[in-house]
Amino acid sequence: MTSVSQRFADLAYLDDRRGIMTDTLQDWCAINSGSANLDGLKAMHGVLREAFAALGGDVETAPSDKKTVVTRAGETIEQPLGDMLRIVKRPQAPVRVLLTGHMDTVFGVDHPFQSGKLLDEDTLNAPGAADMKGGLLVMLNALMTVEQSPLAEQIGYEILINADEEIGSHGSARALTEAAKRAHFACVYEPALADGTLAGARKGSGNFSAVIRGKSAHAGREHHLGRNAMAAAADFISQVDKLSGVREGLTVNVARVDGGGPENVVPDLAIVRFNVRLEQPEDAAFFEARVRDVIAEIDGREGYGAELAGGFTRPPKPMTPKLQAFFDALKATGAELGIEIGWKPTGGCCDGNNIAAAGIPVIDTLGVRGAHIHSAREYAKLDSLVERSKLSALLLLKIAAGELPNPGMFDDGEAA
Questions:
Q1: Is the dihedral of CA 318, 320, 325, 328 positive or negative?
Q2: CATH of domain 4-71+80-202+317-409
Q3: Is the dihedral of CA 213, 35, 97, 337 positive or negative?
Q4: Which of 180, 224, 302, 309 has its CA 20 to 30 A from that of 51?
Q5: Which pTM value belongs to this model?
Q6: SS3 category, 279
């Protein structure tokens, strides 16, 4: 078995890479890869393909499924999404891990936040610096370190980098689930908080659109002949908003209403778009039943029509005994490196939700330390590029060596 001193010798590969990693991160952040920017995603895909090819695995471009969306005109269409990047190495190894991340950001080509700057020698403010191009760099460098170790033959991995995580992973969810079933456990490289705290349990999430149709008419001469879709939408919003808190942890956020037009025309279309978060898996069926009752009531009104689109795409990720054991292993690994590892539940969600639902334990905030993601104040702490690369590398090496148990081998009821 490789000694502790040898493992730290393996990690020494990373000590002189901060400058290279910082320069690479700045280059990656300069590429606009907003979820809807297919040209930008193609450019980012090419850069990542070249970078990850250095691992020596089988590299392929995998098409994403199309996303079903409701347009502002109330039509349902299929929207193309960016391609995924998939790398596989040693799939028959005794230990198999899935590593995932996303190349897309929330910043479209028309967003004012397009370039990066150093706020100080340790803080990079740039689009995607933390969420999650910095995390992709951590993943890559951790695996490059593993590849230089004599323990590499004991661990195989599949990497899946998707292009639609920021809009719900509709096009990559199926691929994520299939990949999870081939692995014992998973590592996802979303950012940790600035103080290093990780996300533990996560809420589930669903995005919905209620399409409500009425009848247009002149607002003065024939108001009585119209059926106001915006007014019916207001009824819908009032009723669905009251579902927040009906079950513990269940929240409804009405985010946008499309519809309406000139003030002198009774509007015949309104589209209510809303997000739902929940803690318990069974609450998804409860919520959908309640909201469909509201839809049915509006649909039954004379002259009106109503239908519901969308659904839950992120199941809740509870803190199971198996996941707790994985976190305990990470905490012990961090202690060897002088890194304090803590975690807490969050209402946010990510691809870790989908992976956990496939039945394997997943820690999904193994990326850089950072803050203010999804805003022009987003930043990544540059010292965490090496720090978090070492953390992941040592974790994987210890599992490969058998010094830590394979997280996927715990029974569901077994604690660490």
A1: positive
A2: 3.40.630.10
A3: negative
A4: 180
A5: 0.93
A6: coil
